[in-house]
Specification:
This protein is of the alpha/beta class and about 400 residues long. It is built from 13 helices and 21 strands. The chain has 2 domains: about 180 residues, Flavin prenyltransferase-like (Rossmann fold), CATH 3.40.50.1950; about 210 residues, Rossmann fold.
Length: about 400
């Protein structure tokens, strides 16, 4: 159960679209994460999913008819607005988006939307030409101006057979969006400038491991999954940053777009990409687990198992944090990560000063539930002003949020 969703009351709205079948999974995921869910839909949505499905999954009666005798309260649109902490509309058709934008309240969902004055997420889903139609884009812009969050659709093959933008984001992505919004509701930073600080800023982010080839089939690497980097990419994107994500080979990827992804393999490739980008960046956050050493020579053929032992000669890789720190301008911010197993604070302070960073995020493998290939982390912040702030064990999504809040406070 996720702490950010535990006890939250969420309205899930559905309009007519084939993507409504994915909303059933979203409802299940929200409830599994600890939320209470009520469903509201347009008449067209019931062409794609059944009332029985929505009521069985949510555990509540479906609100789909303004004047139905089944409604527990005659002014259900008002009572639902009072009850809920947040509303997500997925899928949101072009027709429903147009009604939202222009205040048309002619069914259960649009009437509730008109009465809803809390956080709302709209997930468009439609044919790519409908999505890019100037009227649809203008309606989405209107909603954005009014504070409605838009979960940008994915690109790919659509139900009609066309290729392009318009696919509703996957349920797991929408779940992550809702979790992020719920953390914002609960955060003490609500109403501060912690979010606006990143809007429009260009951020270089590194994530994942690097791999250092030994021969065509073997390499040196580490256990990094890339989850911390992906969580930072998501958080930065949601806060309006222009993210350049230099990523090694990862088993995961960020939920949210847009971001610019630069895929690399080796520490040398990551160093080259980061140093090219750095002069035009406002911030760099180096969360990647970069190899410290790489083989002096890479065999062009697979090394045969001809003896009982094998000796590899290694050389140091180029230090990305040190290079960026050396070239850092006064108006740039630089964040490094440190993974230590002994003398953690002392080593992190030394790294901060020696590499001219503004902040170090310290990880310790001695803390249960922290480190590689787990969904949680426990970190300590060390900054250029001499402050040391230890954090509790949290999900990596929450840690990403804490890192960005703390970094914005340094300015």
């Amino acid at each position: 159960m996720d702490a950010s969703l535990k006890g939250k009351k969420i309205v899930v709205g559905l309009s007519g679209g084939i993507a409504a079948y994915k909303t059933l999974t979203l409802i299940r995921l929200l409830i599994k994460a600890g939320a209470e869910v009520k469903c509201v839909c347009t008449p067209a949505a019931l062409e794609f999913v059944t009332p029985l499905s929505l009521e069985t999954l949510s555990g509540h009666p479906l609100y789909s008819d303004l004047f139905s005798a089944r409604n527990e309260i005659k002014t259900a649109h008002v009572s639902y607005a009072d009850w809920a902490d947040l509303m997500i509309v997925a899928p949101a058709s072009a027709n429903t988006i147009a009604k939202f934008a222009h205040g048309i309240a002619d069914n259960a969902l649009t009437t509730l939307f008109a009465a809803f004055d809390k956080n709302t997420v709209v997930a468009p889903a439609m044919n790519t030409r409908m999505y890019h139609n100037p009227a649809t884009q203008a309606n989405l812009d209107l909603l954005l101006q009014r504070g409605i969050r838009i979960a940008a659709p994915d690109s790919g093959q659509l139900a009609c057979g066309a290729e392009g933008d318009g696919r509703m984001p996957e349920p797991e992505t929408l779940l992550a969006y809702v979790k992020w919004m719920c953390r914002c509701l609960d955060s003490p930073r609500k109403g501060t400038s912690a979010d606006s600080f990143y809007k429009g800023k260009k951020v270089l982010l590194t994530g994942g491991p690097t791999v250092e080839p030994i021969d065509p089939v073997r390499y040196l690497s580490n256990h990094s999954s890339g989850l911390m980097g992906c969580s930072l990419a998501d958080e930065l994107t949601l806060r309006g940053a222009d993210v350049y994500f230099v990523a090694g080979p990862m088993r995961v990827r960020p939920h949210f777009s847009p971001f610019r992804s630069i895929s690399v393999q080796t520490a040398g490739e990551m160093h080259e990409a980061a140093t090219v980008l750095w002069p035009s960046m406002d911030i760099a956050i180096l969360s990647a687990a970069v190899a410290d050493y790489t083989p002096v020579e890479v065999s062009m053929q697979k090394i045969k198992k001809d003896s009982d032992s094998l000796c590899l000669e290694l050389k140091k890789t180029q230090d990305i944090l040190a290079r960026l720190g050396k070239d850092k301008r006064p108006n740039q911010l630089l964040v490094g990560f440190a993974l230590e197993t002994e003398n953690e604070i002392e080593n992190a302070r030394t790294k901060l000063k020696r590499k001219n960073a503004d902040m170090i995020v310290l990880n310790s493998l001695r803390n249960p539930g922290a480190g590689f290939a787990v969904s949680t982390n426990q970190v300590t912040f060390i900054d250029k002003h001499g402050r040391v702030e230890a954090q509790e064990l949290k999900s990596k999504e929450e840690v990403a949020s804490d890192i960005l809040d703390y970094l914005s406070s340094l300015c």
